[in-house]
Amino acid sequence: xxxxxxxxxxxxxxxxxxxxxxxxxxxxxxxxxxxxxxxxxxxxxxxxxxxxxxxxxxxxxxxxxxxxxxxxxxxxxxxxxxxxxxxxxxxxxxxxxxxxxxxxxxxxxxxxxxxxxxxxxxxxxxxxxxxxxxxxxxxxxxxxxxxxxxxxxxxxxxxxxxxxxxxxxxxxxxxxxxxxxxxxxxxxxxxxxxxxxxxxxxxxxxx
Length: 207
What we know:
This protein is α+β, with helices and mostly antiparallel strands. It contains five helices and eleven strands; from the N terminus they run βββββααβαβαββββα.
């Protein structure tokens, strides 16, 4: 098992990965992403959930890259326990966030926006999540954290693994134009991004 990824155990009964608990701790802006606006993405080859190579720095046009810790399956929970996971500010909510982006994907496409999710999970776990949730966009694996370390993305440690903290980047031709951090609640991230893009474009939409 990759030491950077969290371990899971069977969960009986399964916990609800689709709904956010009402008492989650709210993450604070600790300045960990202050250096990101205006930065160019590192030109590092990653792989998507289907094993295809991806160079995020070379993607033309406008890209929304939402970075998340980990999408766990509904029949398993982290070895450290779901209560411990919930207690980390900003950790819980990857599945609701991805589902919200799925639902807002047509609006992003109408604006000519490419949508990509990025985590430190291995491609096989991402593929399971993408299939189960019916995601119409790409998930990219940074299992070795090479991209995250070069860019200086914030991380968190849990149950012997290192994961990426939640941050959403608006990227124009390989350069970061805007940063959403901290992202909370995660199930409203897609809505906020669409609203920001609407203001950015003066309400206009791509044909």
